[in-house]
Design a protein that fits this description.
30% of the residues lie in helices and 24% in strands. With 267 residues, the chain is of the alpha/beta class. The chain has a single domain (3-259), classed as 3-Layer(aba) Sandwich (Protocatechuate 4,5-dioxygenase, Chain B). A hairpin with a 2-residue loop joins β5 and β6.
Amino acid sequence: MTIRVPAVAGRFYQASPLELSKQLNHWLVAPDEVTSFPRALIVPHAGYMFSGKVAARAYRWLKRNGNVYQKVILVGPSHYYAFDGCALPGDQYFATPLGEVQIDTPSVEKLSRFDDIAISDHIHELEHCLEVQLPFLQHCLPAFTLLPILTGDISPARLAEIIDPLWQDNTLLVISSDLSHYHPYADAQDIDHRTLKVIEKFDPSLSPQQACGSTGINTLLLLAKQRGYYLTQIEYKNSGDMEAGDKERVVGYVSYLVSSPRETGPE
């Protein structure tokens, strides 16, 4: 059994299982009324002191129907390595302070047959954008297997082809992305609000300058529009809104809920 150990526990989020659980318990209070369950989420991936509450506002919608999901497809951008296609892990488990998450190895094996899919524990080893989502998922879902996809140079249309047959009713799709990076506060707000308008038009034209996980977001927009899903913005903030934030170099964060026509999103 091979396990990817946490790379950013103690830096991006609490390394103590007790303290991490306490924080998540405080943030992840289930909504009073749940009329739907999400098909997908868009959530940020900075340190919890900056973006954790924004992510939690979306994740809490999983609290009362977490047993619906048997699988999670988690997509985010590679921050440390440039490569063509996508990278999947060879490891069988991803670990966090809350325990181990089993990798969906049958899906990894199936996708590994594609020329644009690489199996690389090395690419996944230091990456934070997927890891920071795992404690939220572990807290909200009773049991699930994970398909972690890091994107390199791949078109959203191609990634949509890969994900579409895997995104079933028992599968949650999570897109990990921040928005603009390192602009002064007012400029960042202007850039980000224009980006949000693009997202809410289901326009799959985002660039990495607008959102570091633009490939994943564009892929979700293609699939959601094709399926007739709804998109609901949950919360937007940036790092300058946080007590420790620097208003001269801020990073934008947003969370979205995606639901099907038969189930409406939050009011």
